[in-house]
Specification:
Layout lengths: L4 H5 L1 E9 L9 E5 L5 E6 L5 E6 L3 E8 L6 E7 L4 E7 L3 E9 L10 E5 L5 E6 L5 E7 L2 E8 L6 E7 L4 E3 L2 E3 L3 E8 L9 E5 L5 E6 L5 E7 L2 E8 L4 E7 L4 E3 L2 E2 L2
Parallel strand pairs: 1-7, 8-14, 8-15, 16-22, 16-23
Antiparallel strand pairs: 1-4, 2-3, 2-5, 5-6, 8-11, 9-10, 9-12, 12-13, 16-19, 17-18, 17-20, 20-21
Length: 257
């Protein structure tokens, strides 16, 4: 059975990819899929934005085009007996960047967890801030997002941000210092026994618990302002009331007898 000459050679599809201001887009991926979703052709644009490949047969296809920093595009292509020439325009995608800093000192915070969620609450992307507290999200669709950041020893913060059709939005995040209670537990005997240290709120509910280390030191970080009760247990329990204010570092030692 002979195969028609047209089907053996395929039908050429070529064209050029531009951005919104008619600048050629290099290294854009152009993919052709058939009605079942199977890839039938693929090319990458050159420095002038040109691409070329062949469709295996006449018919209906979907052409998918994507490039870094741009929003992807999908278009229906009908292939007949003649070569197809296309002009494709990609819109630039929005971006978001900024710096995570300590609110009281302005010092950049390295390793802060930065999370971006959309208006439905779904996580879009997340990353850790860099050595200078910097973070960046690229290739975002325009819209409203919630940007949240948190780091050890600081109160987490969240802000609403809006990205436009193009360009990179700037949003810095300041994290307030969390209050802390730290100190040591002294015991009369050696070797030192295991000492449990708990923190109770005004209602008597346990909000934190831990153990003193081999030197008797303990610490509770990132606390809300208020009055707490420190309970250390090994021999007879010790219970002391401690008051902390916003961002305050409070030392409280415990003597077990």
């Amino acid at each position: 059975m002979s195969i028609p000459q047209q089907n053996r050679r395929g039908v050429e599809i070529s064209g050029r990819v531009y951005d919104a201001v008619s600048t050629p887009v290099a290294r854009a991926a152009v993919t052709l899929v058939d009605t079942s979703g199977k890839q039938t052709g693929r090319a990458t644009t050159d420095d002038t934005g040109h691409f070329r490949f062949t469709a295996p047969n006449p018919g209906g296809y979907v052409l998918i085009t994507s490039a870094p920093g741009h929003q992807p595009d999908a278009a229906t292509v009908t292939v007949g007996g003649s070569p197809v020439r296309l002009e494709i325009t990609l819109r630039s995608s929005a971006g978001l960047r900024g710096v995570v800093r300590a609110a009281t000192t302005g010092v950049p915070i390295m390793g802060a967890a930065v999370t971006l969620t959309d208006d439905r609450g779904d996580v879009v992307d997340s990353r850790l801030s860099g050595p200078g507290g910097e973070y960046a999200f690229a290739s975002l669709a325009p819209g409203t997002y919630v940007l949240a950041a948190g780091a050890s020893g600081y109160r987490p913060a969240a802000v609403a941000v809006v990205t436009a059709e193009t360009g990179t939005a700037q949003q810095d995040v300041e994290l307030a210092d969390g209050a802390a209670i730290r100190g040591s537990v002294r015991v009369p005997d050696e070797p030192r026994p295991t000492v449990s240290v708990s923190l109770l709120d005004d209602a008597g509910q346990v909000v934190r618990t831990g153990f003193a280390d081999e030197h008797g030191h303990y610490a509770f970080h990132d606390l809300d302002p208020g009055t707490y009760t420190v309970v250390a247990t090994s021999y007879s329990p010790s219970r002391d009331v401690v008051r902390v204010d916003h961002g305050e570092r409070t030392r409280h030692d415990v003597q077990l007898v």
